[in-house]
Amino acid sequence: TWGRGKGGGDKAAPKRSVLDASNVFVSGDRFNDVRGIEQLAAQDGSMAGDYFRRKGFYHKMIWNFDQNVQRLYGVPPRNLATGMTALLAGGYAAYYGKTFPDAWVKPLYRQAEKLMTDNPRVQSARLRDKPVMYQLMVGVGMELQLVQLELQKNPNPAMQRRLREAGAQVLRTVFDAEPDQVQFSSSGLRVK
């Protein structure tokens, strides 16, 4: 039975982090809850095509992110602080027109983890809403980064302006500050 140790005594189940969004998986390669992915697919984004194609795109992108983020950056998958890190890295890439440095990921994650763990809104968020929050943050952040990479290969000044504004909007929304006031570094971030 759940919670029974070797000695037959009761053991408490491990405490779940308030940042855990792991109920997004059933098994194999499918998400259990795809509400965040559906919201992303329903938006008019930079990707042309129908809803189902966009839904498949976001599903695959977020799934691949989850499969690789721990190995590449040492941060946990299906974690709200990881999602926030992806969102902020995307905002940075879009606003500044360059890739977010790999060495900055873990310090930014640690900062997000501390701030989000202590945030009453995150603490009181319903468990069933955390996968949605996670999918939205990862989906937006990764899409911004992918569009920026594409623009590095195939420059388009009009699209770069729109992408820069999208990055600015992410940073303004998260920090309630102008993007130029948000400074990222290998120590994390600082808002002037």
Overview in brief:
With 192 residues, the chain is mainly alpha-helical.
Structure description:
There is one protein chain. The protein has seven helices and two strands; from the N terminus they run αααααααββ. With 192 residues, the protein is mainly alpha-helical. It has a two-stranded antiparallel ribbon. Helix 2 (51-73) packs across helix 6 (130-153), helix 3 crosses helix 4 and helix 6 packs antiparallel against helix 7. It starts with 34 loop residues before the first helix and ends with a strand. Mean pLDDT is 87; it is low at 1-10.
Strand content: under 5%
Please describe the biggest sheet, giving its number of strands, its sense, and whether it closes into a barrel: 2 strands, antiparallel
Distance from N terminus to C terminus (CA atoms, Å) equals 53 Å
Would you tell me the structural class of the helices and strands?
mainly alpha
Integer-rounded radius of gyration: 18 Å
* Helicity range: 55-70%
Strand order of the largest sheet: 1-2
Low-confidence region ranges: 1-10
The quaternary organization reads as single chain
Shape: globular
Annotation, overall tally of beta strands: 2
H/I helix tally: 7
Mean pLDDT: 87
Please trace the helix and strand order, writing H or E for each element: HHHHHHHEE
